[in-house]
Amino acid sequence: MADFDWKSALQAVAPGLASAFGGPLVGAAVKVIGDKLLGNPNASQADVEEALSGGLSGEQVVALREAENTFKLEMERIDAQRDQASLADAQNARQQTVALAQAGSNIAWAPVVISTIITLGFFACVVLLFVIDRAWDERQANLLNTLFGGLLLGFGQVCNYWLGSSAGSKRSGDAVRKLAEIRAAK
Length: 186
Description:
Blueprint: H1 6-13, H2 15-21, H3 26-38, H4 45-53, H5 58-102, H6 110-131, H7 138-163, H8 166-185
């Protein structure tokens, strides 16, 4: 079995772990494989490679598939925590604005003023670029395009601030669905 290609076998049995094994998540992959395959979550990468290079028994295939499911669950948990932190950050910003407004601080107007400037600038660029028929020299056109690109990003952030982000909600819903599917498959 000296010619056994353990990387291909790992790719066939647990593709998520195989891709993590070759990338920045190698430590997490080694920990999960070491725990499920060797019974040692503190196993080294060399230990895992040695265990995989000897060929895979049926029990090891089952252990690797279980490790794959555990790894997916852990990655989904991390994604959910990141989404929660993002939502909490947005909520804290809004709560701070409300608190400043209740205290009568002029700083509470900052989001309104900044949002108004970005929105007006965005639509002014739209009118200049797409409505007014004018020949711009190359320098002016490049400057206007750069300004429009920056305002386009800012306008998206303004909309997300005032209207909420559906992308974050979608990611959270997808994460919950994936967790339920993985648990149901066990």
